[in-house]
Structure formats: structure tokens, C-alpha cells
Amino acid sequence: MLIGLTGGIGSGKTTVSDLFAELGIKIIDTDVISQNLTAASGSAISLILENFGPQSIALDGSMDRKFMRTKVFNSSNERKKLESILHPLIREEAKRQIQNLDGPYSILAVPLMNKDSSWIRLCDRILLVDCPKEEQIRRVELRNGLGPTEIQKIINSQSSIRDKLSFADDVLFNYGEREYLKKEILRLHQIYLKLSGACSK
Ligand code: ATP
User: What is the pTM of this model?
Assistant: First the structure.
């Protein structure tokens, strides 16, 4: 059984997937796949160079993230162009990893899922992580040192909570005590174990 894990920037997807991993659950993270594809000698590098020119590649041979972030932030055409390079490669690698999964259930973390996303069809169930917008901004400010306006812009570019709730099966409210989060994850873990047993019958 495959659980799709999604949520906005800073909502806590990595924190949540780390806690599932501690329970022995395998995690496929599309962010990690994307980082590998755009690392030095990653399979997306030659296409990025071809489409965005030498400035898009840093001295160490990886994608120049700062340059590309500015580029895609200022033009939706450039963003679409980068997505059209990365998305098929991410999907192909995620599918390869899915083929090799074992265990009762696994988690596929996809930050930018929306109701039309083809990732939904790959998953048996979707878990949405959410927290108040002010908390998202606070966490990302602390972690990335970005300003509130820039973070707000990123949040606005992601799908709305209303859209996400329309396809989520489970919602994990990640706000406050870590102990509360751990308890909620254990509760979901039990549910997923039961459901995966039901699925394999
Ligand atoms: P992104 O989409 O930006 O990669 P994410 O959804 O994976 O983010 P995390 O990286 O898990 O989110 O969390 C963002 C930041 O908030 C991290 O620094 C994390 O330690 C912190 N954080 C997560 N959950 C909580 C919580 N319940 N209380 C306090 N801080 C938290």
C-alpha cells in the first residue's frame, strides 16, 4: 500500500516522514529525487544546461539553485520549462523505487500535489500535513532565512488548503508539541497497518 504524503512549504512533511521512517516504514521522497537529479552529474544537468545556458550550472557542476530560483520565480514560462525537464525524470525514478518496495505500506512524499496531480493515481491514500499559515512562515523564516513576503509568495504559488482537502484521506495537524505529533503518527501507523492487511487479502 502506498501513502502519498503532501503539504505546503514548512508544514512538516520531512518531520513526519522521519517519524514514519523511525517506525521502519520506507520513504520515497520526490524532493530527494529532484536534488539527486540536479546534483553534479545528475541526469537532469545536461538538459538544464541546454535549456537555460551555462549560468544555470554552478562551478561544482550542480544546478545553480539561486540562479534558477530567481529565474522560475519571475517567469511562469521558465518555471514550466524547468518542470517539463524535471517532472518526467522524477516520476520515472519514483516509479522505479516503488517497484522495489517491500513492507506493509510505504510513503511517497510529494510537496507539490494538487487535485489534478497524476501522483494521486499512484497512491492508495493521501495524507495531508498542515499547520497555520503564520506558523509555516515562522518556520521557513527560521530555517531558510527568507523574508515573510517571499514565503507568502511561495505559499500563494502552492495549491490552497481547500484544494488539498478535496483529495486528502487523512489530515495531520502538525502544530505544537512533538509528543502530540508522535502519538498521531502512531495512530495513523496502526490504521495503515490494518488497511494494508485488508488490501493484501
Ligand atoms: P519543505 O516543504 O519546506 O521542505 P517540510 O514540509 O518538509 O518543509 P519540515 O522540514 O519537516 O517541513 O519542517 C519545517 C521546519 O519546521 C523544520 O525546521 C522543522 O524542524 C520545523 N518543525 C516541523 N514540525 C514542527 C513542530 N511541530 N513544532 C516546531 N517546529 C517544527
Answer: 0.91
| 109-59-35 Cα angle (round to 5) | 5
Consecutive H or E run containing 5? strand 2-6
Q: What is the mean pLDDT of each run of 10 residues along the chain (201 residues)?
A: 95 96 96 96 96 97 94 89 95 94 94 87 95 93 89 87 92 92 96 82 41
Which domains occur in the chain, in start order?
Answer: 1-25+105-195 (3.40.50.300), 36-103 (no CATH)
Query: Which residue out of 18, 131, 139, 177 has the highest number of ligand 1 atoms within 8 Å of its CB and is therefore the one to mutate?
Result: 139
Rg (CA), the chain: 18
Atom 30 in ligand 1: residue holding the nearest Cα: 139
Residue nearest to atom 21 of ligand 1 (CA): 139
